[in-house]
């Protein structure tokens, strides 16, 4: 009978703990061994794939489980060391009878992890686990290990079929706005940072509106399919994106003339100013008659000195943010050779951009902050506290806070840059 990935075709997937005990007993995989005579504590080699001395043999246990579980068929599938490692770790982390005793994966000479069975009956391999194995992703307890081990596996891929980003974006917010088609994205991954690229995972945005420099509105949302800045609650709800209604200026402004002008801007928004994500980029499009200009600025101030980046037009989608250059700038910032990367989008509605002028005199200014990017920068700013652990919540879907030292963060961002083609991302 044909064999598939180390098991008989059609046979049920083996349970990992009895399988692992058999491998420990056989002692055939280098570095995989019992550490005590009671067969309760054992070690697993755990070398990072980007180390210069990494060899395929260092991933023997991960490949063996990939074959046994049917995730990898030699000769048919391409080797995927990071995925093998991630799936093995996630499978172990889901078992309550196991606990991680020592994490020596950063040991320069012998990187490994030590696990221990915590139940007295765990030594009987037939009683180790009665639950079926699944292909579900890792639990939230995997999150910290994912960011430390898997940042290097994150690849910011271009849209499929060699389509330009603008073409791909138009499928997200297509001319047929009643039937938006989602842009294909990379498959979901256990790596929490890869969620930044997965269409099913929503970015959280903090939206703040100003009338003549006075803050009149602020809301933090996970917008399904993007967001739309609109001027009336009775706007077109058939359009995609979560509508955010800017408030009437009656309460916030005292000057009757200014109130009238602000209302004219709001009424001309029509279908709204749309902002949405496609892969690693953010796009904007004007759906009404109200002209809009945009720029990247500081979180407290728009960039009035250098002017706007462009106008959001009706006839084409505007690429207003790219994650690739942001990560490149973040690494340069941590190395002391660059400025703090910007992540805050500012929109000026109904008037020209306030270049070299006080922005507080503009009728309507709207600030949009992707909170996940703010969290990444806040962690990078803890560069001087390398001996401390700093926690950041990426605010992607239901992701959990991540905790790691700034030294670790810097090291793995540097690993990440090797897998990203920033130049292509910046030119796209």
UniProtKB/TrEMBL annotation:
Residue intervals of the IRF tryptophan pentad repeat domain:
13-119
Q: Which Pfam families match?
A: IRF, IRF-3
Give an example GO molecular function: identical protein binding
- Determine if 4Fe-4S is one of this entry's keywords: no
- The main location is cytoplasm
Q: Which UniProt keywords apply?
A: Acetylation, Activator, Antiviral defense, Cytoplasm, DNA-binding, Immunity, Innate immunity, Isopeptide bond, Mitochondrion, Nucleus, Phosphoprotein, Transcription, Transcription regulation, Ubl conjugation
Extract the SUPFAM superfamilies matched here.
Answer: SMAD/FHA domain, Winged helix' DNA-binding domain
Q: Which residues fall in a coiled-coil region?
A: none
Cell compartment(s), UniProt: Cytoplasm; Mitochondrion; Nucleus
Q: Spans of biased composition, class Polar residues?
A: 123-141
* Name this protein carries in UniProt: Interferon regulatory factor 3
């Amino acid at each position: 009978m044909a064999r598939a990935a180390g098991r008989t075709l059609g046979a049920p997937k083996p349970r990992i703990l009895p399988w692992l005990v058999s491998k420990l007993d056989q002692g055939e995989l280098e570095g995989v061994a019992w550490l005590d005579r009671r067969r309760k504590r054992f070690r697993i080699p755990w070398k990072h794939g980007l180390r210069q001395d990494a060899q395929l043999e260092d991933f023997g246990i991960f490949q063996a489980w990939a074959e046994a579980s049917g995730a990898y068929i030699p000769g048919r599938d391409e080797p995927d060391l990071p995925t093998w490692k991630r799936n093995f770790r996630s499978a172990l982390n889901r078992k309550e009878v196991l606990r991680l005793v020592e994490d020596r994966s950063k040991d320069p000479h012998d990187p490994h992890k030590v696990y221990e069975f915590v139940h007295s009956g765990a030594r009987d391999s037939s009683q180790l686990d009665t639950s079926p194995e699944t292909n579900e992703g890792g639990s939230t307890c995997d999150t910290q290990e994912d960011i430390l081990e898997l940042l290097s596996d994150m690849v910011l891929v271009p849209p499929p079929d060699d389509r330009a980003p603008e073409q791909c974006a138009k499928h997200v917010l297509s001319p047929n706005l009643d039937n938006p088609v989602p842009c294909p994205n990379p498959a979901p991954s256990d790596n929490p940072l890869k969620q930044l690229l997965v269409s099913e995972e929503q970015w959280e945005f903090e939206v703040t509106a100003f009338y003549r420099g006075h803050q009149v509105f602020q809301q933090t949302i996970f917008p399904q399919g993007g967001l739309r800045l609109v001027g009336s609650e009775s706007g077109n709800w058939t359009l995609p994106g979560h509508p955010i209604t800017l408030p009437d200026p009656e309460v916030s402004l005292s000057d009757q003339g200014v109130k009238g002008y602000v209302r004219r801007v709001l009424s001309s928004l029509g279908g709204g100013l749309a902002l949405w994500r496609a892969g690693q980029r953010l796009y904007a499009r004007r759906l009404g008659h109200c002209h809009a200009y945009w720029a990247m600025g500081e979180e407290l101030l728009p960039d009035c000195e250098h002017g706007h980046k462009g106008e959001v037009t009706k006839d084409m989608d505007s690429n207003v943010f790219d994650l690739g250059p942001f990560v490149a700038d973040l690494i340069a910032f941590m190395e002391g050779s660059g400025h703090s990367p910007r992540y805050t989008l500012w929109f000026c509605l109904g008037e020209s951009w306030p270049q070299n002028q006080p922005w507080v005199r503009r009728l309507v200014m709207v600030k949009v902050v992707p909170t996940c990017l703010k969290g990444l920068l806040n962690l990078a700013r803890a560069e001087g506290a390398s001996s401390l652990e700093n926690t950041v919540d990426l605010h992607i879907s239901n992701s959990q806070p991540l905790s790691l030292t700034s030294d670790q963060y810097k090291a793995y961002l540097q690993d990440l840059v090797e897998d990203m083609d920033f130049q292509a991302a910046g030119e796209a």
